[in-house]
Amino acid sequence: MDDQEQQGFIFHGTDGTAEYSIDQVREMAARDEPDGVYALAMAYIFGWDVEPDEERGYRLLEKAVDMGQTDAMALMVRLYMQGEYEGIDNERAAHLAVTAAADGIPEAQLYAGLAYMDGVSVPQDYAEAARLFSLAANQGDQEARTSLGYLYENGLGVAKDEAKAYRLYRTAARGGSVNAMFHAGVCLEFGTGTPVDLSRASEWYLRGAQMGDAFAMERLGHLMMEESPEEGFEWFLRAAMEGVPTAMGTVGFCYLGGTGVKEDADEARKWLRMAADNGIEEAAEALMDLEES
Question: 26: closest CA among 49, 4, 46?
C-alpha cells in the first residue's frame, strides 16, 4: 500500500490498484483491516487529509504493527531511526526491520542491512547486509546503494572492488543521496576507484554541503583553502557550527594563524578548546602551547 498527500490513499493488491478517500480509510480501520489502520496512522502522523495528531497516529501505527502490517513496521523503524518515535528500542527495531524486509519492502531491507552490518541486535553478518542492500538498491533505494558501495569499498561481505564502490556512490548521488555525494567526492579527491578529479570532487561536496552535509562542508573547505582561504574558512566555520570536531580545530588554527580570517587569539582559544573537548589531540596541544605563551 502506498499513499498520496491530499489525493486519497492508493492501495496495491492482486487485482491492481485502487484509490480510497480518507472516509473510506476510516471505515477500513473501523473494520480492523491492517492496511486501513496503517493508512489512518499515516494520515494522523503526517496530517494527510486530517488535522495532525501524532499521539493518535502512533497508537494506530502500533496497532498496525501488532496486526503484522509490514509497511507499518518499516515506517515505525524509520521514525525510530530519525528520533521521532521512542516506543521501541534497537532490538525491537532490528526485529521489525528483518520481518518487513522478508516481505520485500526496500526501506526495511535497508534498515535490516544496517542492523546486520553493525551487529545491532542481530549477529554481525556483512554478507547478509550486502544481500539486503542489493535487494533494496535493485528497487531504487539510494541509501541502500550507498551502503552497498561502502561494503565494496572496504571488502566487507563482498570482494573488495573500489571501482564498483565508486560507481555505486555516483549512481546514488545522482539519485539524490546526500551521503553518496560525500562518498563520491572522497573517491574523486583521493583517487579511490576512479582517477583523481578535484574539480568534480568539489562539485559533489558543494551539492552535499548545500543540502546540509557538514562533512561535505569540511572537505570543501580543504579543497577551497589554496584557491580562496576566505571561502575555505567559511566552509570550515559552517562545518564547525554543525558540530564537526575536526572542523572546530581547523577554525581555531585559522584564527591562530590568520588564515582566511583576521588573526584572533581569543577566537582561536574558543574553537581549539571546543575541539579539544571533543577529543582532537592536536587542538589540545595547540591550546596548551597557546596558554603557556
Answer: 49
* Number of Cβ within a 10 Å radius of residue 90: 13
List per-block mean pLDDT (blocks of 10 residues) for the chain, which spans 293 residues.
55 70 94 95 93 96 97 96 94 96 96 96 96 97 98 98 98 98 98 98 98 98 95 98 98 97 96 96 92 77
Cell of 105: 519492502
List the grid coordinates of 104: 520485500
Please say whether the beta carbons of 116 and 129 come within 8 A: yes
Of 105, 103, 165, residue with least CA distance to 130 = 165
Contact 119, 105 (CB under 8 A): no
Please name which of 142, 114, 141 lies closest in space to residue 126, comparing C-alpha atoms.
114
Cell numbers given for 48: 494527510
What is the spatial distance between Cα 216 and Cα 201, in angstroms, rounded to a whole number?
Answer: 10
**Residue 57 · residue 42 · CB < 8 Å:** yes
In eight-state DSSP terms, residue 155 is T
Candidates 225, 223, 180, 171; CA nearest to 201 is 223
Cβ distance 133 to 100 under 8 Å? no
Residue with cell 495532525: 52
pTM tops 0.90, yes or no = no
Which residue spans within the chain are E strands per DSSP? 9-13, 16-20
Coil, strand or helix at 19: strand
Compute the distance between CA of residue 199 and CA of residue 207 in angstroms, rounded to an integer. 13
Query: Can you tell me the distance from the alpha carbon of 200 to that of 203, in angstroms, rounded to the nearest whole number?
Result: 5
Three cell numbers at 283?
587542538
The grid coordinates of residue 237 equal: 566555520
From 103, 127, 97, 102, select the one nearest 115 (Cα to Cα).
Answer: 97
